Amino acid sequence: MLSACQPVQPPTRIHSSPEILWDSWGVPHIVAHNDNDAFYAFGWAQMRSHADLLLKLYAVARGRGAEIFGEDYLPADRSVRILGIPGLAEKWYREQDVAFRANLDAFAAGINDFAQQYPQTISDTVRAVLPVTPQDVIAHTTRVMTVFIAGTSECGAVIPGFDFSDQPAASNGWALGSSYSASGNAMLLTNPHLDWRGLETFYESHFLLADVNLYGTALVGSPVLQIAFNDYLGWTHTVNTMDGCDLYQLKRAGAELDDGYLLDGITQSFTVTREIIQSREQDGSMTNEVLLIRRAKQGPVIEVDDQILAVRFALLETPLLAGMNRQWWEMGHARNLEEFQDVLQGQHLPLFNVVYADADKHIMLVYNGIIPVRTTGDAAFWRAPVPGNDSNLIWSRTHSYADLPKAIDPISGWVQNSNGAPWYMTMPFLDKSLYSPNIAADVTNNRELRGLKMLNAYQQMSYEELIAAKHSTHALVADQLLDDLITAARESNSQLLLQAADILGHWDRQYLAESRGAWLFGMWFEKWLERTIAKATVADPNYSFTPDQLVGSLFYTQPFDATQPLTTPYGLADIPLALLALQDAASELQATKGTLDVAWGEIARLRRGKTDLPGNGAGTALGVFREIVYEPDEDGKYKSFSGDTYIALVEFSQPVRAQVLTTYGNASQHPISEIGSQLPLAAKQQLRPAWRMLDEIEANLAMREILRRQ
C-alpha cells in the first residue's frame, strides 16, 4: 500500500537534457528525464566538486597509485592486486544487467566529459588517471567496502592500506515510530561519523527525476546515493559489528613457501600469479616490482612476520557484491516497507546496519551484511587467526536475510544503533540466543549508552527535541566516574588536585565551546586509560586492549550489564591510579596553557581551509553523542578531523520535513569549494533545510548547468 504522499514535481518541469542546479551550499540538484542522464550528471557533478580526490581514488582502486603518485602508494597497490579487485571489477561489470551497466557507462562518461571540457580544473599529476572506465567505478566501490570490512575486523591489521589507522568508522542512527514521535509521524536521524579526508569523504546530492525525488549522500566516487530519503521513506547506515573477513594460519608443507601448505594432512600447492607494479620515483623515472600472488583454498596469502596467513573476505568470495550499487539505487526508488525489504533481500550490501523510517509510520533496523555461515566457534574464535589446516573451517555460504537480527515497529516506538551489537537496537533488547553465536560481536560503547539514556528520557520526542538530542555534548563518562574522582581528589593533600577538583566540580559535563573543565577531564581520561592499560600489560604481557573493554571491569567497579543498561557501568576501578592520572593531566595543562579551566573551544578547533572556529563535541570513549574528534595541529591547538560528517533529520510528514548538514562542506575542488562553508553552522550546532522542490532550489541558486552529452 502506497502512502498518501504525491510526487513533488510534475514531469513537465524536468528538462529534456540533464541539468544541474547548484545551490548556495554547493549541493548539486540533478534534474533529469531518465536514470541514464542522472548518472551522467552525477559523474559530472562529482568532478566539479572533487575531481582530484575522485581520480586519485580510482587510480588506487586500479592498483596503480604508485605509478602516478609515487612509492607511498605501493602498500595499497600491492593489497589491491593481491585481493584481485581489478579483475573482479572486470568480471562484475560484465555481469551487470543491461540497463544498470548503461548507467555505470553514463557515470564514467560524465566524469570524462567534464575532464575534457574543463582540464584546467584538474591537477597536472592527477590528469594522468584519465580516462575513467565503468570498471574503475566498480573497482573503487569494491575497494571502499573491502576497506570498511578490513578495518572493522582482524584483517585490517595485516593488509597494508586497508585499515582505519587514524579513526575507526562510527555512526549514530535512530528511527522513531508514530507512538514515540510527538507529531505521530515517523522520524529518521542520519548521523555517520567518518574521517573528514580522502576515502571516506561524503558528497551531498539530490536527484529529481520523473519517478523519484531522492536526497542524500554518497562517498566520493560512488555512482549512487548510499544514505538517502525520498517522499515515501528513508534510510541511514551505521557500521555494525559483523565479521566479514577471516584469517587462516597456514601450516607449511616444507621448508620453503613454494613447497605448499597442509590441508587435512594433504599437501596443497598454491595458485601463483605474477604482476608488475610500477612506481614513480621523485625524479620522474619508473621502477618495476614483481609481485608474486599466492592463493590458497581459503584465499590470497599474506606473509606477516613468520606467519603465513590466508585472507578470506566474504564480499570478495561471493558474486553478491556485483549488485551493490544497483541495490542502493533500487532502495532509493522503493515506496513502502514491503518494496524496501524486497530490495534488501538481494543481500548485496556487504555490511552496515540499515535504519529505516517511512511515511506509512513504519520503522525498522536490520543488522545487514554479507556474513559467512560459520558452523563452529563463537565471535571471539573467528576474530583471531583460525587453523588453516582444517577444511571444515572454510565457509562457503552466507547468511540469508531471514537469518539477520532485525526489529520492525517494536513496542518501544524506536530503534537505534551507535555501533553496538544488534541485540541493543531497541528495548526490551533482542534475545541473542536466537541467533548464530558468531554472527555478531557482543559489544557496546558509551556513545550508544548515552543514546539509550536519551531515548528513555522521553515518552515522546518532538522534531525539535530530536535535533537537540543529536547535538548533545553531555559526557556520559562524567556521570559514571566524576563524583568518585572529585571525592578522592578532595581527600588528597595535593593543592593541584584540590584545584583540579574545584574546576571539575563546576564543569557542566558538556563538550561545548565554552565548557570549562572539559579539557582537563578529557586529558585525565586519556592518561587514566594509558595508566590502566599499562598496569594490565605488566600483569599479563599477552594482554591486548580492544575498545569494547572501555565499558568493562578493567575500568569500572561495576562494568556494563545488559540487564541494567541505563545505570551501568559506573565507579572507578582503581582510585589511586585515577589520582595519578589527574595529577599528570593537571600538571601538563598548567605547564602548557597556564590554567586548568581553559575552555574546550579555545583548544579544540573546527578547521577546514581558512575556517577556524571554536569546536564542540568529543569522542565515543567519553560517551558524547555529538562525536567530533580532534588531533594536534601545528600551532599547539587541536583540529577536527573526524566525527559528524553528513547529518539529516527527516520527518515523514506531508510534505517531508528535513534538515541537513555536511559538516566540512560539499567540495574540495577550487573554486566550488568556496561556496557555502558549513563549519560555521556546525560551530553553532545548527542545521539547514534540505531544498527538494524546484521553486526553493531556484530561489537559492548559485549556478545552473544544462549538460549536452557528447
TrEMBL record:
InterPro entries xrefs: Ntn_hydrolases_N (IPR029055), Pen/GL7ACA/AHL_acylase (IPR014395), Penicillin_amidase_A-knob (IPR043147), Penicillin_amidase_dom1 (IPR023343), Penicillin_amidase_N_B-knob (IPR043146), S45 (IPR002692)
Hydrolase is among the record's keywords: yes
Molecular function terms, GO-annotated: hydrolase activity, acting on carbon-nitrogen (but not peptide) bonds, in linear amides; metal ion binding
Pfam families, per database record: Penicil_amidase
UniProt keyword list: Calcium, Hydrolase, Metal-binding, Signal, Zymogen
Positions annotated as active site in the UniProt record: S171
Biological process terms in GO annotation: antibiotic biosynthetic process
Cofactor: Ca(2+)
Keyword set includes Membrane: no
Free-text cofactor note: Binds 1 Ca(2+) ion per dimer.
Binding site for Ca(2+): D243, D246
Similarity remark: Belongs to the peptidase S45 family.
Protein name: Acyl-homoserine-lactone acylase
Organism this protein belongs to: Nitrosomonas communis
